[in-house]
Amino acid sequence: MANYGIPYMGSKDSIIHKIAPLFPAADHFYDLFGGGFSVSHFMTLHHAGKYKRIFYNELKSYVVELVRDAIAGKFNYNAFKPKWISREEFKENKDKCAYTRLIWSFGNDQRSYLFSEENEINKKSLHNAVVFNEFDALAIKHLGIDLFPVHLSIRGRRLLCRDIIVKRKGELQQLERLQQLERLQQLEQLERLQQLQQLQQLELSSKSYDEIKILPGSVVYCDPPYKGTRGYLTAFDHEKFWDWVRRQVEPVFVSEYSAPEDFKVLMALHKKTRLSGKGATDAPAEKIFGNSAAVEITLDRKWSA
Q1: Cα 294–chain centre separation
Q2: Residue 291 and residue 235: Cα distance in Å, rounded?
Q3: In 3D, which of 105, 63, 76, 65 has the Cα closest to residue 190?
Q4: 0.85 exceeded by the pTM?
Q5: Would you put residue 244 in left (φ > 0), alpha (ψ -120 to 50) or beta?
Q6: Are 59 and 223 in contact (CB under 8 A)?
Q7: According to the model, what pLDDT value does residue 17 have?
């Protein structure tokens, strides 16, 4: 399955293809808690014909700027060779550089450095081998070669590195070392956004959800911070949010684990999560709730199907 948006904690990348069929055609589509851009990215690629404009909004301005930079081609591998970011550089720059803050944090949590101190040297060795074709003694030891074929792209080196590790290492060592290669794979997500560069349909903003003017003839999707879930950087007023949803005339679809009793569940599904730091684990059933307009449209579409 393709990856959408940028690497981001709580991304809907793995389930947006299941959610999107709920959204009816309209003039405008609003992704009000856009986060890592996965929903807006998916909709522009696969459902653009349903909407005249797609609005991506994310309160954190540095995330929006990272998405803008990716769309503008800043992370194209022909121009961008991702240098290694050390633990010290991460601490120094994470509050000033969105790329460092998001891509080099553990589980994209924007707080803690990606690698443990004992593993950092091995990760750096493989990173420099794949990105710059520069081999030190550790890279030679891990891969059994001292240079990649010169014609290989960074992606080609990554895939070859993966194949070598799978063949040479035991299962536990293989998993540990492939985590660095997954980081490089996530960087390819940034590069992929350049395909949207000429798209006039997409609009980006950085505001609070309740500051966005919802135009008539719209569909609204909200993926707010989940109540009772740790890991978010700022507090969120859930009661205020649900009151806002109730007041909306246009159909509003909300991702959450739970909602006030007057909201109807339109869909329930499962996804994998890495928030625990222990690899992919089953998350609680995620649900899509709707305001009265969303419920009415969903029921009408079921009856007419």
Answers
A1: 25
A2: 23
A3: 76
A4: no
A5: alpha
A6: no
A7: 92
